[in-house]
Amino acid sequence: GLMNRLSSQSSALTPCGGGYISATGMKARSWVPRRRLSPPRVTWLALVSLLSGLLTSSQAKVFSRCELAKELHRMGLDGFRGYELADWVCLAYFTSGFNTAAVDHEADGSTNNGLFQINSRKWCRNLSLDSLNLCKMYCSDLLTPDLKNAVVCVMKIVSGPKGLGYW
Q: Which residues have a Cβ under 8 Å from the Cβ of 48 and sit 6 or more positions away?
């Protein structure tokens, strides 16, 4: 999982806006469907994806590594719950490729949303799915270039017993 990838990263550091970020060995995650979908389900997912894309396409942002590091530092994630800035940047890279509008559809009908791919089953509310909504926000709130909601939710997630192991 992600924690294995994090621990297998070499300790080489790259300068980034006055700080340093580990950046070796990063590879993009492939987005492969986990099971075969029936035609009605494919149609429904296509419609939801299209609407999601229309609602967020004007708001999508793909951060550069350094730009994201600066923003996450400004928002207080560096050192939060013992996780360094490099951990957060690595998480964002492996989950979304630094894309705030990334949405990944799971076999159970839930979605992983935004920069940190926060799941709708537990953390945010989609219009089409019941959720615990522990972050008390709509999943669409996680798809904007303004990272405030994503950071608030990710802080709540890592404050739980699994920490970054949730991913």
A: 105, 128
